[in-house]
Amino acid sequence: MSNVRQVVFPAGRQALYEKNRYSPAIRANGFLFVSGQVGSREDGSPEPGLEAQIRRAFDNLNAILSAAGCSFDHVIDVTLFIVNPEAVLDTLWKVLPDYWGEAPHPALTAVGVTWLYGFDLEIKVVARLPGARP
């Protein structure tokens, strides 16, 4: 098995990732490891408004999943980092069904944090690539 990292870039955002010196996602050994996604516009600035920012984070995530040839249905593990969870969770739970898909849902870990570079939420996932052997 090859341990070579294969980088996945969503359309139109490569310069942002190069500026910040990380890969948006890595394909390795049948899995896709996606870096934490926030509700950032193309220039990296936060989408204004909590619900819009959450939706943009999921849209950014879905762009990476699509670039890798998969969808949220392939996601097996989710980690959410949330600034001020008490203020964010009601809106998050309202938005999730639009992106989460049908049961069985992925494993989930949510962590309250104090700072996310001006964002309210970050979502990090691991997905099994289509056609990968179990």
TrEMBL record:
SUPFAM superfamilies: YjgF-like. One of its GO terms (molecular function) is deaminase activity. GO terms for cellular component: cytosol. Transmembrane segments: none annotated. It holds the Pfam family Ribonuc_L-PSP. This is RidA family protein.
